[in-house]
Amino acid sequence: MLLLVDPKDRRYLLTLESNAEFHSHSGYISHEDLIGKEDGARVKSSGGLEYLALRPTMSDVILKMPRSAQIIYPKDIGPILIAADIAEGDRVLESGVGSGALSIALLRAGANVTGIELREDFAQRARRNVDAFFPNQVIDGRYEVLIGDAYEQLIGTDYDRIVLDLPEPWRVIDHVENCLRPGGIIVSYSPSIIQVSRLTDRLKRDNYAMTKTQEILSRSWHVEGRAVRPDHRMVAHTGFITSTRFLGK
Fold it and tell me: What is the CATH code of the structural domain delimited by 60-246?
């Protein structure tokens, strides 16, 4: 993959292929002219516009990758990984895989991920996005997406972490004791505080501790000489992150 950035900071994510071209309002650039370029090289289109060519970050890929469902945004993915205390080798059950954004982050952190997705088209999209981000089978054997309904049952046992992105996460709690080890962590991502309230009420009825909900707001700043101020736009509410520890049956 390659990221092209134009002078107005517009970003274009490319998968480089022989005999392919990138087209924009400023003309075209042959992929052949981009293959093998050093990170940070500058290239010009046929119309003379100069682009910066960079290896994309995970955030760049997540924001630009094809999607079948709404993704979890990078500003929330980092805190989710921290809340779940993801470490290399952790066995993670992810339900509500969507387009695979969180799967990519979990895998890059070293986890072994089993996804449960209700819709086959979402599962296929997630697999394709994960495969595109990790070429050459570098995650071979560490990722699978199973078709199933997490409200009915959770597949597998002895997970270290469970990560949920579901409309009704409280309905999954009945099945947790059969698949999450004592001391394991559940993290749920919910757009609505009503969802959080119902989940928290459900957790209080069983053996859970250290339940916490947080919301991440991201505001960038304009810094140019002495002209220092918050940017006029910010990424405010996207979702709530609720984490809890399972203490066993």
Answer: 3.40.50.150
